[in-house]
TrEMBL record:
The chain crosses the membrane at residues 6-25, 37-55, 67-88, 100-118, 124-145, 157-177, 189-207, 228-248, 254-274, 286-306. This is AEC family transporter. Belongs to the auxin efflux carrier (TC 2.A.69) family. The keyword Glycoprotein does not apply. One of its GO terms (biological process) is transmembrane transport. Keywords: Cell membrane, Membrane, Transmembrane, Transmembrane helix, Transport. It holds the Pfam family Mem_trans. The keyword Membrane applies. It comes from the Bacteria.
Length: 310
């Protein structure tokens, strides 16, 4: 079965879970605000378990080369997105929330479960390369955009739980310290909740959004389509032009984990950051919701193009 169809099947499963999240709020069983509890569980428990488990793998020269390759590709894609946003800012009159939306994807919540489903647990470690680059930029450049200044929030970067998990996992990997099978098995079970819980959270957020305003605001489609179509196509063109997939063995599969992270919808964290920095929270939330819904259609198309071109 083509990878694009496999991805479509996995995204359809996640979409059905999203609808369950909508249903529990619309039925009055939960309130949208209750999603904060689930967010804490996702960010501070589930994601660290997945990341730590991903680094529990035997060290080989091929694996190290693959990690450096994925990290380099992630840096290139982010530089491309930053350059595109700088060029389009004035012509399209992109505000702070829109600029952050088109640059930063929801890779942390979505790419790991999708990589697990499409490529297997062994490839999750490569997706961490994109997450590392994005986390550093999100809490430095991204926060500076939303605050309207250039000051860097290094404390937020260095104390970010995902980044700390990656650092701990990398230390265990390079020192080749294996965790007990009982611990890794537990983390594997906890990590299996990541995709479903992320989509339940998205569904609970969607439940409180006025759908007429969400789908009726033309401006929202601009940032969403840049994030889901224009920027991924530019990234695909860059990867094709540089011929990166042929540089190392298994390069195409490793590169797909990076590309998959780059085509996910708007970063969910931006809504919280917009609230923290007194930006347009409604727009940030709406762009997250709309891009999440549209990604159900765009992501399989982009992966299909990747499989065809790379």
């Amino acid at each position: 079965m083509p990878v694009s169809l496999l991805l479509a099947r996995e995204i359809t499963k996640l979409f059905l879970i999203l609808l369950l999240g909508v249903a529990v709020v619309r039925a009055g069983l939960l309130h949208a605000a209750d999603s904060r509890v689930l967010s804490v569980i996702l960010v501070y428990l589930i994601v660290p378990c997945v990341i730590l488990n991903a680094f529990q793998i035997e060290d080989t020269p091929e694996l190290r080369a693959g990690l450096l390759f994925a990290l380099g590709a992630a840096v290139l894609i982010h530089l491309l997105f930053l350059a595109l946003t700088l060029a389009l800012r004035r012509p399209l009159k992109l505000d702070a929330v829109e600029r952050a939306t088109v640059i930063y994807s929801n890779a942390g919540a979505l790419v790991i479960p999708l990589v697990q489903a499409l490529q297997g647990q062994a490839y999750v470690i490569y997706s961490c390369a994109f997450i590392i680059v994005q986390l550093v930029l999100l809490w430095t450049h991204g926060s500076a955009i939303l605050r309207g200044g250039a000051a860097l929030n290094w404390k937020a970067v260095l104390t970010n739980v995902n980044l700390l998990s990656i650092a701990a996992g990398a230390a265990l990997y390079f020192l080749q310290i294996p965790l007990p099978a009982l611990v890794t098995g537990t983390m594997d079970s906890v990590g299996a909740m990541m995709g479903p819980l992320a989509m339940l959270l998205a569904g609970m957020t969607i439940a409180e959004c006025p759908l007429r305003q969400l789908f009726g605001t033309a401006r929202y489609y601009l940032a969403s389509l840049l994030r889901l179509a224009a920027y991924p196509l530019a990234a695909l063109a860059l990867l094709w032009a540089l011929g990166l997939a042929g540089l190392i063995p298994d390069g195409k599969a490793i590169l797909m984990t990076v590309f998959l992270a780059a085509i996910t919808p708007a970063c969910a964290t931006l809504t919280s950051m917009a609230q923290l920095y007194d930006c347009d929270v409604r727009k940030a939330s709406s762009l997250y919701v709309l891009s999440t819904l549209l990604s159900i259609l765009t992501m399989p198309v982009m992966i299909g193009l990747y499989d065809l071109v790379i």
